[in-house]
Amino acid sequence: MMRPWILPVLFTLSGSLVAAGLIARGEPGEAVALLLLFVLLAGVNSPLVFPRPTGALEAQRRSAVDGRPVVYWRPGCVYCLRLRTRLGRDAHRLHWVDIWRDPAGAAAVRAANDGNETVPTVVVAGRPHTNPDPEWVRGQLLP
Known about the structure:
Helices cover 51% and strands 11% of the residues. The chain is α+β, with helices and mostly antiparallel strands.
């Protein structure tokens, strides 16, 4: 359960240590700027940036009912972050499955990608698409 938070916590701790060193050298302005950068990196890589994840089985069930794509992702993935950012508000219209929280989601991704946990994997109408263009994904959303 804590696995998605490892990277954000490491960014925050690393930034704090570097900032403390800069303060000790008498450079508080640089320390604050660097700490803010590390906190921003921690936030971007945290699960907070993505819509609330659902379980793989529930996402598949909902997708069958409403026709919306299912996105399998994991925190810290720059390609997932790119997809999420480029989708903007439309990201909330998709079903998001965090493969680090859901073993069934990880298994679905491995089945679609020859045993690899390559994300983002977007499933549209039962067909998986690995790291698709965000504009293509937006086009798969029903009006």
